[in-house]
Amino acid sequence: MDIDLISKGIGLVSNTIATLKTLKDLMPSGSKKHDVEEKLTEAENNLRLAKAEIAKGFDYKLCQRHFPPGILLVVDEFKLKCNICGNVEDFG
Ligand SMILES: [Zn+2]
User: pTM of the predicted model, to two decimals?
Assistant: First the structure.
Protein backbone atom coordinates (compact mmCIF):
# COMPACT_ATOMS: atom_id res chain seq x y z
CA MET A 1 0.00 0.00 0.00
CA ASP A 2 1.15 3.52 -0.84
CA ILE A 3 0.47 5.91 2.07
CA ASP A 4 0.57 8.97 -0.25
CA LEU A 5 -2.23 7.59 -2.44
CA ILE A 6 -4.27 6.65 0.62
CA SER A 7 -3.74 10.16 2.07
CA LYS A 8 -4.90 11.69 -1.22
CA GLY A 9 -8.02 9.53 -1.19
CA ILE A 10 -8.80 10.47 2.41
CA GLY A 11 -8.26 14.13 1.54
CA LEU A 12 -10.81 13.88 -1.28
CA VAL A 13 -13.36 12.26 1.02
CA SER A 14 -12.71 15.00 3.63
CA ASN A 15 -13.22 17.69 0.99
CA THR A 16 -16.47 16.05 -0.11
CA ILE A 17 -17.79 16.06 3.45
CA ALA A 18 -16.75 19.73 3.80
CA THR A 19 -18.67 20.56 0.58
CA LEU A 20 -21.75 18.71 1.86
CA LYS A 21 -21.55 20.66 5.14
CA THR A 22 -21.53 23.91 3.16
CA LEU A 23 -24.64 22.76 1.30
CA LYS A 24 -26.28 21.74 4.58
CA ASP A 25 -25.73 25.29 5.90
CA LEU A 26 -27.77 26.59 2.94
CA MET A 27 -30.78 24.44 3.94
CA PRO A 28 -33.61 26.08 5.89
CA SER A 29 -33.76 25.09 9.57
CA GLY A 30 -36.00 22.14 10.34
CA SER A 31 -36.11 18.40 10.82
CA LYS A 32 -34.58 17.60 7.41
CA LYS A 33 -31.58 19.84 8.17
CA HIS A 34 -31.21 18.08 11.52
CA ASP A 35 -31.26 14.67 9.75
CA VAL A 36 -28.58 15.85 7.30
CA GLU A 37 -26.44 17.14 10.21
CA GLU A 38 -26.68 13.74 11.93
CA LYS A 39 -25.70 11.88 8.75
CA LEU A 40 -22.74 14.21 8.16
CA THR A 41 -21.55 13.69 11.74
CA GLU A 42 -21.84 9.94 11.17
CA ALA A 43 -19.82 10.28 7.93
CA GLU A 44 -17.11 12.26 9.76
CA ASN A 45 -16.91 9.64 12.50
CA ASN A 46 -16.66 6.87 9.90
CA LEU A 47 -13.87 8.77 8.16
CA ARG A 48 -11.99 9.15 11.48
CA LEU A 49 -12.43 5.43 12.06
CA ALA A 50 -11.14 4.66 8.55
CA LYS A 51 -8.10 6.91 9.15
CA ALA A 52 -7.40 5.14 12.45
CA GLU A 53 -7.68 1.70 10.81
CA ILE A 54 -5.30 2.76 8.01
CA ALA A 55 -2.89 4.28 10.55
CA LYS A 56 -2.94 1.02 12.51
CA GLY A 57 -2.08 -0.81 9.29
CA PHE A 58 0.99 1.43 8.98
CA ASP A 59 1.97 0.73 12.63
CA TYR A 60 0.99 4.13 14.00
CA LYS A 61 -0.06 4.17 17.66
CA LEU A 62 -3.63 5.26 18.47
CA CYS A 63 -4.94 7.54 21.22
CA GLN A 64 -7.44 5.55 23.30
CA ARG A 65 -8.97 8.55 25.13
CA HIS A 66 -11.94 8.81 22.75
CA PHE A 67 -13.75 7.00 19.96
CA PRO A 68 -13.07 7.02 17.08
CA PRO A 69 -9.43 6.96 18.22
CA GLY A 70 -6.97 9.67 17.16
CA ILE A 71 -3.63 8.99 15.52
CA LEU A 72 -0.52 9.59 17.65
CA LEU A 73 2.04 11.48 15.56
CA VAL A 74 5.71 11.98 16.46
CA VAL A 75 6.25 15.58 17.66
CA ASP A 76 9.56 15.15 19.44
CA GLU A 77 12.25 12.48 19.76
CA PHE A 78 10.33 10.67 22.54
CA LYS A 79 6.87 12.22 22.32
CA LEU A 80 3.70 11.33 20.44
CA LYS A 81 0.71 13.70 20.15
CA CYS A 82 -2.90 12.86 19.31
CA ASN A 83 -4.14 14.59 16.14
CA ILE A 84 -7.63 15.04 17.65
CA CYS A 85 -7.40 15.81 21.41
CA GLY A 86 -3.74 16.87 21.69
CA ASN A 87 -2.94 14.17 24.26
CA VAL A 88 0.86 13.75 24.51
CA GLU A 89 2.35 10.33 25.29
CA ASP A 90 5.91 9.08 25.73
CA PHE A 91 7.22 6.39 23.46
CA GLY A 92 10.35 4.39 22.99
ZN1 LIG B 1 -6.69 11.77 21.58
Answer: 0.78
